[in-house]
Specification:
14% of the residues lie in helices and 32% in strands. With 416 residues, the protein is α/β, with parallel strands linked by helices. It folds into 2 domains: 2-219, Spore Coat Polysaccharide Biosynthesis Protein SpsA, Chain A, CATH 3.90.550; 230-407, Hexapeptide repeat proteins (UDP N-Acetylglucosamine Acyltransferase, domain 1). Strands 14, 16, 17, 19, 21, 23, 24, 26, 27, 29, 32 and 34 form a 12-stranded parallel beta sheet that branches. It has a 7-stranded mixed beta sheet with strand order 5-4-1-6-11-8-12. It has a 6-stranded parallel beta sheet with strand order 15-18-20-22-25-28, with no helix packed on it. A hairpin with a 2-residue loop joins strand 30 and strand 31 (364-367).
Length: 416
């Protein structure tokens, strides 16, 4: 049996991270989302995987990453979607690589699926995973009969018809490709996979299964923190690198042989470290923290509930509840979840207001559902000393802040 992963979408809601990085290559615990999906398939005996990529530089980015990732035991094939015409269209690109009558597991490329969800699919001829949600009007909703077979899949229903959302984790059959020519284009000029699945369900039973393992959609930057908080506590500690004297570890720690933690560092949480990274001396780590490859977290830094990309340098600063891209220089500053009377820069939510942080996405303010949310900083940003960054602010790739600058609005540059 084959697996098919749709990896052709643009991560516009993930800006500024998605400006320079394909959304399927966003890292969770220092591993790309698409590699999480490939691993979940492999754990269930599926070792032939078709990756559908876009025809632009992001598609090449995905292809190059996977071809150099040394993924053992899996045969990867690539198909290209030249135009973005919806979810049915993207999976249609795999038609020539799937045998007539063959079953396959299909996954959306920007979500993480626990391997037990795929295992549950494989117990049925055809099946689709659903997850109960509190806002069904925002999802495709699965309607099923008393036997648990799919009746139809309704995209973003205006009336309450159920609360089991389609999450993009399915076991389908090559027969679904035959329905594509019968689909009507939506107002958004897209062909919806929900329509194809309903047609398939009208012809043969498609079992509806409630999720038995985690499902972690990564549509917005703060979802990177959400996924980290779920998965970091599940890792097994693996300490291969050097740990100097007086280092305290009160959680899970992954430390490769090429990385090291210097003296008097205190880790009160779960820490995942990449290759060739140095932490310390005198660094405080709290909560769930991920630090990428080739980083240096220097003297007197404090990092809480944050994900930091590759090749970043943090100089004696505080970072809380934030997401950093790659190649960022952050000198004696603070990026955090509370604004307060600090002598150096900081970013975050106001403890006096018991509300969630909202941030601007496509000219609309979106509720992050997080009371503590700091900055989202794109690749190759240079932060000036003592910069003050307000809660939920995003800084586009390549931007530079001046010393003592107060950033009250997103810094958007030529990448838009």
């Amino acid at each position: 049996m084959k697996g098919i992963i749709a990896a052709a979408g643009r991560g516009t809601r993930l800006y500024p991270i998605g400006i320079t990085t394909s959304k399927t290559l966003v890292k969770i615990l220092n591993k790309s989302i698409i590699e999480w999906s490939i691993d979940a398939l492999k754990q269930n005996g599926i070792n032939e995987v078709i990756i559908i990529i876009s025809a632009d530089e992001f598609g090449e980015q995905v292809r190059n990453h996977l071809e150099n990732a040394n993924i053992d035991g899996v045969n990867l094939q690539f198909a290209t979607q030249k135009e973005q015409l919806g979810t049915a269209h993207v999976f249609q690109m795999a038609k020539e690589l799937v045998d007539e009558g063959e079953d396959f597991v299909a996954l959306y490329g920007d979500d993480l699926y626990g391997p037990d969800n795929i295992r549950a699919l494989l117990e049925h001829e055809l099946a689709i995973i659903g997850k109960k949600v509190t806002d069904p009007e925002k999802w495709g909703i699965l309607q099923h009969d008393e036997q648990g077979n799919l009746i139809k899949l309704v995209e973003k229903p205006k009336e309450m018809i159920g609360d089991l959302a389609h999450i993009g984790c399915m076991k389908l059959n090559a027969r679904i490709f035959d329905f594509f020519d019968q689909l009507e284009m939506t107002e958004r000029r897209e062909y919806e996979l929900t329509d194809s699945i309903t047609m398939l369900a009208n012809e043969r039973p498609v079992k509806v299964i409630e999720a038995v393992d985690y499902w972690l959609p990564v549509g917005y930057p703060w979802h990177i923190l959400d996924a980290t908080e779920v998965l970091a506590p599940k890792v097994e500690s693996k300490i291969e690198g050097e740990v100097e004297q007086n280092v305290v570890v009160k959680g899970k720690l992954i430390l490769p042989a090429s990385s090291k933690i210097l003296a008097n560092t205190y880790i009160d949480g779960n820490l995942i470290v990449g290759e060739n990274t140095t932490i310390g001396p005198n660094v405080m780590i709290r909560g769930d923290v991920v630090i990428g490859n080739d980083c240096w977290i220097k003297f007197n830094s404090e990092i809480k509930n944050t994900v930091i990309g590759d090749s970043c340098k943090i100089h004696s600063g505080y970072i809380g509840d934030s997401i950093f891209g790659n190649h960022i220089n952050f000198p004696t500053s603070i990026a955090g979840s509370y604004l307060g009377s600090f002598p150096v820069a900081r970013v975050g939510s106001d403890p006096e207001e018991n509300t969630n942080v909202k941030t601007l996405v496509k000219n609309n303010y979106v509720n992050t559902s997080r009371h503590k949310f700091g900055a989202v900083i794109g690749d190759s940003v240079q932060i000036g000393i003592n910069t003050v960054i307000f809660p939920g602010i995003k800084i586009w790739p390549g931007a530079v802040t001046s010393p003592n600058e107060v950033v009250k609005n997103d810094i958007v540059n030529k990448w838009v």
